[in-house]
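Hi Y.,

Following your request, here is the sequence exactly as I used it, all 120 residues.
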Amino acid sequence: QVQAVESGGGSVQTGGSLRLSCVASGRTRCTYDMSWYRQAPGKEREPVAVFKADGSTRYADSVQGRFTISQDSAKNTVYLQMNSLKPEDTAMYYCNIKGTGWCGAVLNSWGQGTQVTVSS
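Below is the corresponding structure, written out as tokens. Let me know if you'd prefer a different format.
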């Protein structure tokens, strides 16, 4: 089974940058999408960006143009480069690994979360 392991959170000031990493640890025969979600206190978890198995990417409107998701397939790692950070980006960020097609029923792994705090 594949597990998501995140790192890279921290505290920055408005306008700063951070890079989050998510390693897909373990083995599977499934192809999978790797996504970043975030959850702020008192709010629902929301999708931020996804690196799909076919190499395509999608972003939430709120981060488009500021965040970039990329993958190092040799390292089974997805990165989320976050630039021009705003206080409203403050949240716990979670990595999700979900199998494509029928694999989605057996592979849906969440990381433990990494905190991002942006101060004004």
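The two ends are 41 Å apart (CA to CA).

Thanks again,
Q.
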